[in-house]
Amino acid sequence: MQQRKIILGVAASDAHAVANHLIAHALRGIGYTVVNLGTCTPVEEFAEACREHPDAEAVVIGSLNGHIHEDLRDLAATKAEGAIRCPVIVGGNLSVGSKKDPAALERLYRLGVDRIVNDPAALPAVLDELRATRPVAEPLLAVS
Amino acid sequence: MQQRKIILGVAASDAHAVANHLIAHALRGIGYTVVNLGTCTPVEEFAEACREHPDAEAVVIGSLNGHIHEDLRDLAATKAEGAIRCPVIVGGNLSVGSKKDPAALERLYRLGVDRIVNDPAALPAVLDELRATRPVAEPLLAVS
Amino acid sequence: MTSKIVLLGADRAGEAPHSVPGAESLPPLEESVAYVRALGKPTAAQVLQDARESGRVAIQPRCGVGGHEEMKALLRDLEAQAAPDILTLTIDAHTRLKRFEQALRTLNRDPRDLNGYPLVTHGWQRGRDLNESVAAPLEIRHGSPDARALFDVSVASGITSFEGGGISYNLPYSKAVPIAESLAAWEDVDRVCGRLAELGLIIDRELFGTLTAVLVPPSISLAISVVEAVLAARAGVRCISVAYPQSGHLVQDVAALRTIPLLARRYLPEGVQVHAVFHEFMGVFPRGRGHAEDLIFYGALVARLGGASKLITKTYQEAYGIPDTRANVEGLRLASRANSPLLDFVAVDADRVAEEQQWILAEVADIVEPLLEQPDLKAAVAQALERGTLDIPFSASRYAKSEIIPKRDAEGAIRYLSAGSLPLSRRALRRNDELLRRSEAGGADPGLGSLLADLTGDINYFLTLFGESDREGTS
Amino acid sequence: MTSKIVLLGADRAGEAPHSVPGAESLPPLEESVAYVRALGKPTAAQVLQDARESGRVAIQPRCGVGGHEEMKALLRDLEAQAAPDILTLTIDAHTRLKRFEQALRTLNRDPRDLNGYPLVTHGWQRGRDLNESVAAPLEIRHGSPDARALFDVSVASGITSFEGGGISYNLPYSKAVPIAESLAAWEDVDRVCGRLAELGLIIDRELFGTLTAVLVPPSISLAISVVEAVLAARAGVRCISVAYPQSGHLVQDVAALRTIPLLARRYLPEGVQVHAVFHEFMGVFPRGRGHAEDLIFYGALVARLGGASKLITKTYQEAYGIPDTRANVEGLRLASRANSPLLDFVAVDADRVAEEQQWILAEVADIVEPLLEQPDLKAAVAQALERGTLDIPFSASRYAKSEIIPKRDAEGAIRYLSAGSLPLSRRALRRNDELLRRSEAGGADPGLGSLLADLTGDINYFLTLFGESDREGTS
Ligand code: B12
Ligand code: B12
């Protein structure tokens, strides 16, 4: 059986590597193939990876430095072009400042993000759920 | 020559003794006779001392605990009665709280205080000045 | 702002509890005990016990303002922002001296003119209201030679800790209250604590070893606390906190704090819980905010090193006046840092502490043992104060001779320049002399003028240490 | 709020200074030197020197917001309320990576969306405006593999301290910048510092030994700083600050800090001023405010014990996001307490520090000496990173192998679980093994899952220490 695959990376202006390393390790540990683009990854690089890995279930983007909105500026357009077709999950520290305004998350959805996840431990369940509800025809085996 | 004399004390609700001890010592050191009534001295006790020591040049009252206004409530009346005739000097910490409102000092003058002095070191000069300007006929030798 | 109120309970001032008209307005002790039980918060004694067991120093602010709503807001804000282990009602200086009429008048004119909360004037229902508005237990801190009216209202308010003692709340706080009177008044208070203990409610009775706060030699502070503790225990008190004021000298302070449990074992019956309480520096405080904060943190660290169960904090506004809420919060938060698990490595020279402790123990023994031998301890205390064989520096009261002249040695520890008539041993006196002589360059006998200058220098010790020579720091 | 602005100077990004169109808009170096002289404030280098001579630790915040007026207000407020010795312009993450267009766009849309001050975008006149609005000298803190455009604007702004280095501002901060490129770009920066020194202006060049901040073994941090310092000194830099990040283990941190002057003596020419800088814990910060504050104070105390010239502070909001002004002020004030003269008695076990220091020195020597022997040090560094004989954990960059696996020993010190291809001596490797084995109960070879769990545990060291196991503290 084919391994499940995701594309992982950190947003374009963001160099925080630790969570990225750990999430990649953890997903590999439960059987995923992780295409890890690492830190400082612009949207077009995610799109390229999608082209190379059409079987990827999701693009999973971390952002900690507060710049996620500018860094994902081109996401909606890229999705509209069809260059990214799978769901986009975002997690991390998603705005600048110590007091968090939920409006920052609203803005992300408007930018084309499909799911916002806080805790990396929740990723497998979210991936399962997205896979189960995905509008594609080909039959899939849900694995947990 | 007769020694100069003052009446010293701390306001009625106030038990702070240290500055009182030191001021008494210091004035004695420069030749004053100090009638020290000590802490917790109501206005009537100052008036009594004035009766006993008509030669006192001034009544010098310390207050640190912030209660000077209530403690000197009867001062104006006592002066009006003639029970205290010499000038009344007040010093210390003259209101409650860490931010000081000059209005607190105004209120003291209205209560019948003649001089407000911050630094005990300034007392001799103030006493000299009060003595020099005092409206009594008898000739006096100014000593510094 | 508090609406006008009339005087409640004050008519009982100076009278023995439950024996005067007006006392009907207070609930019976049993009801108050039940109230405390239903309150759903630990007693102060429990908090102290827990702190000791967990190796933390419990932290408590000084706080008291005149108005009731203002007091409630103050307690709530302090709790919300700094979560002290115990909260305080500091009582105003009129109430302390039973000047209830003046307290009432000031309260009705402008509560901000009061330097504390006039609990007797506000009455016990408002006391309960305060008690119910915070999770921490409350202590009454005041300075009343005769606190019986205040204590009754305190108990009725469900307050489980009460500061004071017949010596320590007389000599520093009043001019003309005979010591026999204050001892008798406090015996009444302690007896009620005994009855409450029988009813199952332990009141923490804190003794004000801080005394006049300025240059108090440790053995004076501790000796007076030992005497008061013995009297309290005999009257039935079951939880005693012995407060000791920071001298500013590390070894001396740690030694003094660590001596408290030894004194308890030596002079008090078993079954009495005894806690060491440390008062952050109680003398002339530096004016510069950073300097004041350095001293606040240092005090808290010394409390930890000395094994105190509780610390009473100061604020960076100490030199200026009663602090505002924010300064109080910041003082508490800063002091809390000294409880940090990351500071386990901080230590003090154990040998020097042990040596200093031996001397403190010996001096305290010299002072208290002749008294404790007497059949009537209260009478013995009154007589000793008259003779100067018990004494304090800078007494506010005529009933102490105040012959003691304290002086800092070269290292800053407080010693006896003159022990007055204290019955200290020759050895102890010689050691004090030697330590002080080391600090004199010339060693010549100082004149009176220089004595005053020296004293002032010692009083202003921390101003000098921080270079605030002209007393004008930056706030 | 800042009014819309157009891009100045950014066109020079990535180009050598003074060689591209647009450079005309910047003043000549001579003018900037004269400007700094006329500014009437000490340089950062002077402040550091003064701090060292007076035995104080200079204190500096991190601070940077997007808007110009907001940045000015921030600097002024921090100075008015906490008087740090040096102030910071923290640069936003777009500018760091020369994404000037994105910085400009965000600035014009909403400056609050920037995580720092986009100095290149604002331009040098605004830089001078900031400089003139406070008394303390400024440092630029950023994270740019190629900082030449930023440096030019910084010099033109009269800013006398500039952080970074060809390794330390590449590997943690970018993914795909070849090391040769960043080394060359930083050599340009350092050469300009050399010219400025000839013109009489000493720029403090701080090296970012903090690296990826999470579980960085001290010998890695110091080895990379030694290499960068040697390169900087060769390029003409006269004042070098070596920053070392708190590991959290007292002896290890004090030893590492005290090793910095020894390394300077061993590897740097005379005439180069070298300062040790301590970064308060740079890893995962506790969320509870009291816990965060405990860690902040502890860090400051360790800086003092280690003899650092400067401390970079954190705030109790670290775990949440860029702090607000008040949190920043409180962090600075709290850290200042560790400079208190009252804490002279606090000491650390000198023997253990000396032992740890010997090991750090030896490990650093193992790593750097093979490189320093090479005729072309820059080339040697690039090659070493490729081979893993120079390496860092958790690299953001592809140009480090990141084979090192760090681990805390039983006491919390950071050791090498795997040293990857680092040329550590057998002795050093054996000691690391032994220290780590002591922390394993069973001693069995851990599986991959448990390795990940261990690593996460070590990353969350202070969360565990403070009992914030679920990462949800109280703010
Ligand atoms: C020691 C002390 C005590 C001791 C006093 C022991 C004793 N019997 O003497 C104890 C612990 C008992 C005590 C009790 C209280 N205190 Co007290 N105490 C202090 C403290 C720490 C030092 C005072 C002192 O001795 N200084 C040394 C002497 C030499 O200087 P000084 O008193 O500051 O006086 C200087 C000037 O004011 C001036 N001066 C003083 N008197 C006079 C008189 C004249 C004529 C002149 C010209 C000048 C002058 O000269 C002095 C030298 O510069 C001060 C805070 C501080 N300053 O650091 C608080 C302080 C004075 N106390 C204060 C208060 C409120 C109290 C209490 C009411 C408790 C409370 N609610 O917190 C009780 C008072 C009880 C009562 N009935 O009065 C407040 C006053 C607040 C305000 N005005 O807003 C202060 C400022 C503390 C504070 N920040 O809250 N206190
Ligand atoms: C280590 C660190 C660094 C290191 C990073 C080294 C590296 N290359 O990895 C260094 C020192 C280089 C650094 C630099 C900067 N940093 Co930084 N850094 C941190 C720090 C201290 C720890 C981050 C970390 O590694 N945590 C360990 C990992 C395992 O946890 P985590 O990253 O917190 O992520 C958790 C969640 O967010 C989530 N998560 C993270 N990613 C993802 C992804 C997905 C898909 C999901 C589901 C979940 C998820 O899961 C993790 C576990 O719970 C945090 C503060 C803190 N948390 O204590 C600041 C912090 C993240 N940094 C911050 C900033 C701003 C910066 C800088 C811009 C500098 C500046 N202006 O101050 C630069 C960024 C440069 C750039 N181009 O991005 C801010 C972000 C501010 C904001 N959002 O408001 C923080 C919060 C610090 C602060 N309070 O200011 N930083």
From TrEMBL, chains A, B:
GO molecular function: cobalamin binding; metal ion binding
Tree of life domain: Bacteria
Matching Pfam families: B12-binding
Domain B12-binding span(s) in chain numbering: 3-137
Alphabetical list of InterPro entries matching this protein: Cobalamin-bd, Cobalamin-bd_sf
Protein name: Glutamate mutase subunit S
Organism encoding this protein: Streptomyces misionensis
From TrEMBL, chains C, D:
Family matches, as InterPro entries: Cbl-dep_enz_cat (IPR016176), Glu_mut_E (IPR006396), Glu_mut_E_C_dom_sf (IPR014714)
Keywords annotated in UniProt: Cobalamin, Cobalt, Isomerase
Top-level lineage group: Bacteria
GO MF term (any one): cobalamin binding
Annotated transmembrane regions: none
UniProt record, GO biological process: anaerobic L-glutamate catabolic process
Name of the protein in question: Methylaspartate mutase
Organism: Streptomyces misionensis
